[in-house]
Amino acid sequence: MDVKRKNIPLFLTSTILFGIKTYIIYRFIFNLELKNAMQELILFINPFVSAFLIFSMSVWFKNHSAQMKFLRYTSLIGMLILYFNLLFYRVNTDFITIPQLFQAGNMGDLGSSILTLIKVYDFLLFVDVIIIWYLSKKKRDMIAVNYHKSGKVFALAMSLLLLAGNFFLAEMERPQLFTRTFDREYLVKNIGIFNYHMYDAIMQSKVKTQRVFADESKLPDIKEYVNEIQSKNQSDLYGIAEGKNVIFISVESLQNFVINNEVNREEITPFLNSLVENEDTFYFENFYSQVAQGRTSDSEFLVENSLYPLSSGAVFFTHGQNEYNALPEQLKEKGYYNTVFHANNKSFWNRDQMYKSLGYDYYYGEKAYEVTENNSIGWGLKDKAFFEQSIKYLQSFEQPFYSKFITLTNHFPFNLDEEDRTIEPYDSNSNTLNNYFPTVRYTDEALEQFFKQLKDTGIYEDSIIVIMGDHFGISENHNKAMSQYLGNEKITPYDHLQLQRVPLFIHIPGSGKGKVMSDVSGQIDVKPTLLHLLGIETENDIYFGNDLFSDDRKGYILFRNGDFVSENYVSAGGSCYNRETGAPVDENNNSGVEDKVGNPCTPIKKRVMKELQYSDDIIYGDLFRFVNFGRSN
Ligand code: GP9
Ligand code: MN
Predict the structure, then answer these.
(1) Are 459 and 241 in contact (CB under 8 A)?
(2) Are residues 29 and 64 in the same domain?
(3) 3-state SS assignment for residue 619
(4) Does some domain include residue 3?
(5) How far apart are CA 308 and CA 290, in angstroms?
(6) Which CATH number belongs to the domain containing residue 365 in this structure?
(7) Does 327 sit in the ligand 1 pocket, CB within 6 Å?
(8) Rounded-to-integer distance, Cα 321 and Cα 594, Å
(9) Based on the domain organization, do 128 and 252 belong to the same domain?
(10) Which ligand is the nearest neighbour of the Cα of 344?
């Protein structure tokens, strides 16, 4: 750097002091999970990168006293931001988001308890700021520096380079970190708290701008469309489960191809297979997962709202503050107590915020469970322990309740302890697929055990139990192994779409009417189906699914990328296939189904695109704020 005197510029000293302090806070005060050396490294680097980025801006001030002032105040403000996050974290195990800052209620919680949150040793965290203040005031002659233009540009170039390096490592460690935005904790771990706040600010302002410019004018068209597709006639199951508890189990990465199937000549899911045969169970064999980048959270969004997830990012994250007319909100009106059980950190997928918007009363996250070395693997608590430890909470609820359980063990990369393995892995070039089968079996056993516990505690009789796979577990990267397992020559776009099928079971104890349901259906259909089973009217609601038991259905289900499956045709990867045979419909007129006259997929495709647009309009414009759904809360 082009420096006239041999002073060590204060901005470098500040970077080092503030960087060390921030690192100490990240590493030892926040409870951030670090799984490997790379994560450790990124966590170590990012505090210094952020500090350098901010403090190096001081070089642009000509005047020494302005330089000093800038450093003093930025270090103080930086520390206050860190400290408020720390206090917030002590209550919520999460980081502050911009909407939360403006939500009086949230901050109010913090306000009343703020004194109890401050720890005596916290003042040590301000030591660097004190040193910076002291140096900047008393030792100005020793640390003030004159910079030439080249020095300034160098400092700027350096900070951008460091930032790019940091982002590059972060993206390597967590692909799609910025587009998918899974979790605030991941962002903070990878890019630091200051860059996270910047990112959050940009995201939020994008969302807010779209919201500000939206008005009610789109609603009439949407309502008209929705009216047209809603099932008109009631099925004979309408109201069959009125007043019953609803136990909804979202099973991680459970695909339909394992049902009634074998690996190494062994049944994969004996319990679920027995449910298929059970006279109280409706099993949907052509039920599709419709998720996009938000995976589990997208499947939750589809189920709770019967709206489509977004094409990029997780709607749980981007639109967690919207108005919804979700399943739990509607159940609450009927006196239900709504809870979620999921042994993961509460901020993952922004669940802690989104669940409030959806009308959940309580979220039993990781902290509600006793998680030990022995009872956890991979993503956390094993499914058997998860159900075992949840039952006591269920027993304590007033009925009726709606409880959603989200399992975890059958998650990529499908790790399982030897002692939990009851069937052998498959043998192919993909360890992912190989290991998938034993973890699916483990979860199948966990479900069986849970059913037993529900029966033992007497909850079973008064409940309906829904089991649904959230999305695929085996991605396209394993197509070769997958085709070997399925005995196909290769996996075509048609096959790929068929592999998006996940099982759905609706088990109504004592109903005796169960059967296998074969119509094309999807996660979008769950909300109206459940409401109708419970005898709850949906006439004034706005949603895009159909009651799975009604015979007046729109006849197709769509995917976020515009692909669809209808009764007769499948549109996948821009081509149209015969649904029954999987053969492309018309070789000459096949690709580009959007606008080909005569292609049987074209008219459906047009509806599909319109439907997605309407759903997006609702979410981006937060249009439900303009609708009176007739709820009292
Ligand atoms: C995380 C769990 C898994 O809490 O739901 O999420 P996924 O990666 O499947 O979306
Ligand atoms: Mn999932």
Answers:
(1) no
(2) yes
(3) helix
(4) no
(5) 8
(6) 3.40.720.10
(7) no
(8) 34
(9) no
(10) 1
Q: Is 344 in the pocket of ligand 1 (CB under 6 A)?
A: yes
Choose the final residue of a domain: 162, 191, 211.
211
Rounded Cα distance, 297 and 523, in Å: 12
For position 3, what pLDDT does the model report? 46
* Per-residue pLDDT band at 630 (split at 50, 70, 90): confident
Amino acid at 488: N
Which of 252, 412, 436 maximizes ligand 1 atoms within 8 Å of its Cβ, making it the mutation to test the pocket?
A: 252
The pairing of beta strand 337-341 with beta strand 401-406:
parallel
Catalytic residue of the set 15, 74, 296, 443 = 296
Return all residues near 414 (Cβ < 8 A) that are at least 6 apart.
378, 432, 435, 436, 438, 439, 473
- Ligand 1: which atom is nearest the Cα of residue 342? 4
Measured from the Cα of 470, ligand 1's closest atom is: 9
In three-state secondary structure terms, 217 is: helix
pLDDT tens column, 501-559 = 999 999 999 999 999 999 999 999 999 999 999 999 999 999 999 999 999 999 999 99
> What atom of ligand 1 comes closest to residue 344's alpha carbon?
4
Does 5 map to a domain? no
Strand partners, 381: 376
**Phi then psi for 501, rounded to 5 degrees?**
-70, 135
Atom of ligand 1 lying closest to residue 348 CA: 4
Location of structure tokens 């509600």: 368
Of all helices (H) and strands (E), which one includes residue 247? strand 245-251
Active site residue 296: yes
As for how many domains the chain has, the answer is 2
Mean pLDDT for 298-318 is 93
User: What is the value of pTM for the model shown?
Assistant: 0.84
The residue whose C-alpha atom lies closest to atom 6 belonging to ligand 1 is 296
Backbone phi, psi, residue 3, to 5°: -120, 135
- Mutation probe of ligand 1 site: the residue of 354, 355, 443, 470 with most atoms within 8 A of C-beta: 470
Rounded Cα distance between 4 and 22, Å, is 31
The model's pLDDT over 577-608, given as tens digits with 9 standing for 90+, comes to 999 999 999 755 555 555 566 799 999 999 99
Domain containing 232: what range?
218-626
Residues 154 and 255 in one domain: no
Binding site membership of 295 for ligand 1 (Cβ less than 6 Å): yes
Give the pLDDT confidence score for residue 108 in this predicted structure: 47
Tell me the CA–centroid distance for residue 381 and ligand 1, in Å: 13
Please tell me the total number of residues recorded for the chain in this structure: 633
Q: Is 409 in the pocket of ligand 1 (CB under 6 A)?
A: no
Helix (H) or strand (E) holding 267: strand 266-267
The whole-number pLDDT of residue 96 equals: 87
Whole-angstrom CA distances from 420 to 287, 376, 384 are 29, 11, 10
> Two tokens at 404?
């959603």
Q: Tell me: do 381 and 518 sit in the same domain.
A: yes
Ligand 1 within 6 A of CB of 348? yes
* Residues 434, 328 share a domain: yes
**Could you report the per-residue pLDDT of 333-374, keeping only the tens digit for each?**
999 999 999 999 898 999 999 999 999 999 999 999 999 999
